[in-house]
Specification:
One of its GO terms (molecular function) is D-xylose 1-dehydrogenase (NADP+) activity. Keywords: Oxidoreductase. Belongs to the Gfo/Idh/MocA family. The protein is of the alpha/beta class and about 350 residues long. It folds into two domains: about 120 residues, Rossmann fold, CATH 3.40.50; about 160 residues, Dihydrodipicolinate Reductase, domain 2. It is built from ten helices and 14 strands. The chain has an eight-stranded mixed beta sheet with strand order 8-9-10-7-11-12-13-14, with helices on one face. It has a six-stranded parallel beta sheet with strand order 3-2-1-4-5-6, sandwiched between helices. A hairpin with a 5-residue loop joins strand 13 and strand 14. The protein is globular and about 55 Å long.
């Protein structure tokens, strides 16, 4: 049976997701059949660009329809919680863009509802499905790097003034907008929670974080130093240091096409080509998370073993702590959530 996707919102990341999906040669019996946006003309234009047959003028109409099986949510951060709940309550599986939600309470609520409904839900941390990361995981497991003691990762961009990154009401800020990329790396490598978290940074006038340096300390003297910026371009690479040597994930480290191996050799991970341009670097790789969703749903799973519910909860709790250390507070932090 074909797995039918509905695209929730017609923004830049949704464009890249659909472009990556449609241009991939083997989608394993999946197709994108619908798009919804609050502005129907924008949704119609999006559908025309991508050859999507059905257009909805509201998220509620799509959620209640029988036309889709799984929703890809690419909305503003502040809408992730309510839209995830809407589609789960109406019996749809969900792939929600990062950050999963604004805080750990919302994240726990979404995961609990998915378990109650026996539906698949996953935070779209596409990094976890990168072929480069799959090879890195094998190297770590077989001891190629020895004992890993130190990780450094940098992610810096210049976010234009009209982007949601600057706006508190939209769930903006560096840690929620791009921070998941640096935070997920030590989680991926060490698969444990840090015992100490130290953050220094600065805020926009709106009250959300502009930049931060995060030091995560783990048992056995392990440490990760992570730098994030939304008004400065960095060389967005990451290096993992072990007792036998180090591996560097070249820019963009969140989905690298070049890796410098422990012996200094270069590994290349080419991406498939697309007719339409992309908004973000290496976005063809977004298709791999869609393939994972399809495999998991067909196997009757409600979470991916490569990006688990517990890992999303761990990231959300880290993000909460970092925001608190910087003094970033959302109205959503004062509320309680069901399930």
């Amino acid at each position: 049976m074909t797995l039918r996707w509905g695209i929730v919102t017609a923004g830049r990341i949704s464009h890249d997701f659909v472009n990556a999906f449609n241009s991939y040669p083997d989608k394993e019996d999946q197709e994108i059949v619908a798009v919804a946006a609050r502005n129907k003309s924008r949704a119609a234009d999006f559908a025309k660009t991508h050859g999507i047959p059905k257009v909805f003028d509201s998220y509620e109409a799509m959620a209640k329809s029988n036309d889709i099986d799984v929703a890809y949510i690419g909305s503003l951060n502040s809408e992730h919680y309510e839209l995830s709940i809407l589609f789960l309550e109406n019996g749809k599986h969900v792939l929600c863009e990062k950050p999963f939600c604004l805080n750990a309470k919302q994240t726990r609520s979404v995961i609990s509802l998915a378990k109650k409904k026996k539906l698949f839900v996953m935070e779209a941390v596409w990094t976890r499905f990168s072929p480069a990361y799959a090879d890195l995981e094998k190297d770590i497991k077989n001891g190629k790097l020895g004992d890993i003691k130190f990780i450094e990762a940098d992610f810096g961009i210049v976010s234009p003034d009209d982007r949601s990154t600057h706006i508190k009401e939209y769930g903006g800020g560096a840690i929620l907008d791009v921070g998941v990329y640096v935070l997920q790396l030590p989680q991926f490598v060490w698969k444990e929670d840090p015992k100490r978290i130290t953050t220094v940074g600065s805020l926009y006038d709106s009250g959300v974080d502009l930049t931060e340096t995060i030091i995560l300390e783990y048992e056995g003297g392990k440490r990760a130093v992570l730098n994030i910026h939304t008004q400065q371009e960095f060389w967005n690479k990451a290096t993992i240091y072990g007792t036998k040597g180090h591996v560097t994930l070249e820019q963009p480290f969140q989905f690298p096409h070049i890796v410098i191996d422990i012996d200094g050799s270069t590994k290349n991970y080419p991406l498939h080509s697309s007719k339409l341009p992309y908004n973000f670097t290496n976005s063809p790789g977004l298709v791999y998370q869609a393939l994972e969703v399809g495999r998991c749903i067909r196997a009757g799973l409600i979470e991916s073993p490569r990006m688990t519910h517990d890992e999303s909860m761990g990231l959300a709790l880290l993000e909460d702590i970092i925001r608190k250390q910087l003094g970033v507070h959302f109205d959503a932090d004062d509320k309680e959530y069901p399930w």
